[in-house]
Amino acid sequence: MTDATAIDTPADTRKSGRFLYIASVVLLCAWVIVPIYFLLINTLSSPEAVNSFPKSLIPEFDFGSLQFFAGFEGMLAALKNSVVVALMTMVMSIIIGAPAGYALSRFDFPGKGLFRMLILLTRAFPLPLLALPLAVMFIQTGLDDTSFGLALVHTTLALPFSVLITFSLFSGIPIELEEAAWTLGCTRLTAFTKVVLPLILPGITASAIFAFVISWNEVFAAAVLTIENRTLTAFLLQNLDTTALHLKFAGGFILVVPALIFIFAVRKYLFAMWGIANR
Amino acid sequence: MAEIQIKNVAKSFGAYQALNNINLTVADQEFMVLLGASGCGKSTLLRIIAGLETATSGEVWVGGKRIDHLSPKDRGIAMVFQNYAVFPHLTVFENIGFGLRMQKLPNDEVTRRVEKVSELMHIEMLLKRYSGELSGGQRQRVAVARALAMEPDVILMDEPLSNLDALLRMEMRAELKGVLAASKTTAIYVTHDQVEAMSMADRISVMHEGNIVQAASPIEVYRDPAAKFVASFIGNPPMNFLPATPAGKGKWKVAGQSFDGPDTDQPALHFAIRPEDMALAEKGLSAIAKVVEPLGAHLLVTCQVDGAMFRVVLDSDTVVTSGQTLILAPQSDRIRWFDPETTFAIA
Questions:
Q1: What is the pLDDT of residues A191-211, one digit of tens each?
Q2: Which of A219, A209, A196 is nearest to A269 (CA)?
Q3: For residues A177 and A157, what is the distance between their CA atoms, to the nearest angstrom?
Q4: What is the DSSP letter of A192?
Q5: Burial (CB count <10 Å: 0-12, 13-18, 19+), residue A117
Q6: A184 three-class SS
Q7: Same structural domain for residues A57 and A123?
Q8: Closest Cβ–Cβ partner in B79, B88, B89 for A183
Q9: A87 within a domain of the structure (yes/no)
Q10: Fewest CB within 10 A of the end CB: N or C in chain B?
Q11: In the listed set A38, A64, A90, which residue is the last one of a domain according to the structure?
Q12: Residues 6 or more apart from B91 whose CB is under 8 A from it?
């Protein structure tokens, strides 16, 4: 910044620029926070308060809505299904994704660039396009309406992220650390377990949680591929027009909270995926 | 006993030939420095010895045992890396003891050895710290201590001092030399720093474009370079070269002056002399001073002799001005001759 530009910029211009900046920040925050706040208020209010008008801006900490939610026929089973599918997705996407990430960062092989692009391409096809053939295939193989079948689809969705996150994690670990371990008496495997794994474990956890959240929030495949064993998202969608307002709020809240907490907990590793310095 | 023998080792990366048929023997307890510019293959050779890279062809023997088919962990070779490679998730103690733990040594033996080498490297007060809490110089010490703790037959070092600042580098240079001599291991040390090579080595192998051009004692490499590359790579400022034409039997004409030279029937030779091996005299090469640089300990004058660049190092009290003509007499026993075709020295 030179003196000339400081003179050219009068104080009130800078002030209004600053006002615009703060206003944008506030607007963007409100964009995200206000709906979540309303969700919170309505979840923690009695069913009567939820359906009445005007709304209170302070939650009354009544667990009536949540109780009703827990008592609703099939809701707890759906919640359980969601957890089971998300856990399976988490495990599978790490077991498949982490070795792929390791290979991408440590080995040179023909078609490496293409492979990285293909990983992202798996997200290029809209799920509705794939849903029908998938459903037919699942019915043929007997995977339809099972948690495992759905977890397979969710793993496909989560895999690009787990590969790219672990790729960037492994790349952040200098190969010399492994080489040093080899010269100190490690095999490739023990060097991995004794040196690389402890260093990337937090990142792997983050990647796993991210996969969990992807599965937890996914609704389309869940709605198409399951009938009896619906996950929470699919179950709420199915009952969207028949259930009471307070049930929808409670369900929405139960869906949002774990995702929000998990993503917040692992945010710095998600930045790492895009090569932005950890903050 | 750990004599290292490298027999006909070659390495190519695709079409690129990184090493051409390297043959080298490093004696037991010798300190061998591989010296060369970046990309000359010195690190590749070191990594082949360590087992981190596989040679395309050739054999590596250590202590009379062929090891090139073994994985790094079975070679009994310790290595110090340029970026130290200190494990960030372990304390200094566990870093130094890492290899010993892999050998499943009992706890008290690990402790004894770690304490011994950490005392040797003056890091006994850092044992509880993590790598992130250490300075570059301290990390360097940990890396060396970790290698020494293995009590290896052979220790390999890949530019271990290049990430340190100049003063620390000088200090560590002397210290490393002492520690390694005391440990009685055979050492191969890779560097591109000729001062490091000259000051530490028992022998220097000068590498260029995948070949070892000369392997000899530091003073021999300096005084009697085997090729023009060595002559111009080693020494700061490097050796001066001037074209020479035959002037009778064993006589060569250089810049209008006659010198005693080799008795060959070559049509032309290159005359070479180190900048410090000349004195001002009544009779000799006439040089026009172009740039005068007082360096404190001495005076560096860049001149022109017969249109070619020519450097001379004079006593710092000498008064020289730019444009002045100097008459330089080369010390006759320091004059070297090179074949312009092969670039090799002629005895």
A1: 989 998 888 888 888 888 888
A2: A209
A3: 32
A4: I
A5: exposed
A6: coil
A7: no
A8: B79
A9: yes
A10: C
A11: A64
A12: B127, B128, B129, B130
Residue A198 belongs to domain with CATH number: 1.10.3720.10
Give the model's pLDDT for residue A270.
64
| Cα radius of gyration rounded to whole Å, chain B | 24
The 10 Å CB-count burial string (b at 16+, else e) for B12-43 is eeeeeebbeebebebeebbbbbbbbeeebbbb
Name the token pair of A60.
Answer: 């009354």
User: What's the one-letter identity of residue A11?
Assistant: A
Q: What is the pLDDT of residues A83-117, one digit of tens each?
A: 999 999 999 999 999 889 888 888 888 888 888 88
d(CA A45, CA A23): 31
Domain residue ranges of chain B, discontinuous segments joined by +:
4-233, 240-346
Residue A10: which pLDDT band, with cuts at 50, 70 and 90? low
**Percent of chain B beyond pLDDT 70?**
100
Is the domain of A168 the same as that of A58? Answer: no
Give the residue from A46, A64, A82 where a domain finishes.
A64
Residue A278 lies in a domain: no
Q: Are residues A158 and A252 in the same domain?
A: yes
- Alpha-carbon torsion A183, A184, A186, A192, what sign? negative
Note whether A11 and A130 are same-domain residues: no
Verify that A115 and A203 share a domain, yes or no: yes
Question: In chain B, which residues have their Cβ closer than 8 Å to the Cβ of A177?
Answer: 85, 87
- As assigned by CATH, the class of the B240-346 domain is mainly beta
Task: Kindly report the backbone phi and psi dihedral angles of residue A3, in degrees, each rounded to the nearest multiple of 5, phi listed first.
Answer: -65, -35
Query: For residue B301, with 0-12 CB atoms within 10 Å meaning exposed, 13-18 middle and 19 or more buried, which class applies?
Result: buried
Cβ distance B79 to A177 less than 8 Å, yes or no, reads: no
In A, residues 32-61, which contact B (CB 8 Å cutoff)? none
**What string of DSSP letters covers B230-252?**
HHHHSSSS--EEEEEEE-STTEE
Of A180, A185, A190, the CB nearest to B85: A180
Q: Which domain holds residue A117?
A: 71-273
Rg (CA), chain A: 24
Whether the model clears a pTM of 0.90, i.e. scores above it, the answer is no
State whether residue A110 sits within 8 Å of chain B by CB.
no
Same domain for A47 and A82? no
ipTM: 0.84
Number of domains forming the structure of chain A: 2
Partners of residue B99 in chain A, C-beta under 8 Å: 184-185
Q: Are residues A129 and A33 in the same domain?
A: no
C-alpha triplet A242, A246, A249: angle, nearest 5°: 100
Say which CATH class B4-233 falls into. alpha beta
Same-domain check for residues A57 and A167: no
Residue A279 lies in a domain: no
Q: How many CB atoms lie within 10 A of CB B134?
A: 18
Interface test with B, best of A169, A173, A175, A184 (most B CBs within 10 A): A184
State yes or no: pLDDT of A276 exceeds 50: no
